Amino acid sequence: MLHILGSVDRPSAGKVLVEGTDIAALNQKQSAIFRRRKVGIIYQFYNLIPTLTVEKNIQMPLLLDKRKVNREYFEQIVSSLGIQDKLQALPNQLSGGQQQRTAIARALIYRPAILLADEEPTGNLDQRNSKEIMDMLRLSNRNLKQTILLITHDEKAALMADRIVTIEDGRIVSDAKRG
């Protein structure tokens, strides 16, 4: 489902609308541009480029799109994620939690319309840092009007959401709005 929403895979039938665009109808090049501009993906295994510094890994989506980095927003993100002192490090010099925060920063840097978080985006973080990340994602949802789709088995993380859709064996078994 995340790959379909992220325009990585195509659905076998139907339409997938994101901001009025049927992403299922996009060709490969259009899909890549759409992903780069509209979809932030936080992968379970980070997908950081090992030869690039933390700073360049975070900025990569903007650099690929030949867009200028908003330094104030960049500083805000890395500061709130607690990785401002790791910007010149390579991914293999980071802990798992620091790699996770770098991946989250990369997904947020271009202010995507939809943020897809695959399997426990806070799974490698302690309880305090996990709460801070979840709070930041909520703020991002509220302030930037981003849709955030979080796949989780963590009930505490799920209960922070405005809406919880429960899927079992590929079928929606409940869909509850909260608050």
Architecture overview:
The two termini are 26 Å apart. The longest helix is centred in the last third of the chain and has 18 residues. This protein has a single domain, classed as Rossmann fold (3-Layer(aba) Sandwich), CATH 3.40.50.300. The strands form 3 sheets. A 3-stranded parallel β-sheet has the order 3-4-5. The mean pLDDT is 85. It is globular, with a radius of gyration of 16 Å. α3 packs parallel to α5. 40% of the residues lie in helices and 16% in strands.
Rg from Cα: 16 Å
How many beta-strand runs? 7
List SSEs in N-to-C order: HEEHEHHHEHEHEE
CATH homologous superfamily name?
P-loop containing nucleotide triphosphate hydrolases
- Mean pLDDT, nearest integer? 85
Helix-residue proportion: 25-40%
**What structural category arises from helix and sheet content?**
alpha/beta
DSSP summary: helix tally: 7
Q: Examine the secondary-structure arrangement and name the CATH architecture.
A: 3-Layer(aba) Sandwich
CATH class membership:
Alpha Beta
* Gross geometry: globular
CATH fold category name: Rossmann fold
Major sheet summary line: 3 strands, parallel
> Please, how many domains?
1
Q: Span between N and C termini?
A: 26 Å
Spans where pLDDT lies below 50 across 5 or more residues: none
> Which strand order does the major sheet show?
3-4-5
What is the beta-strand fraction? 15-25%
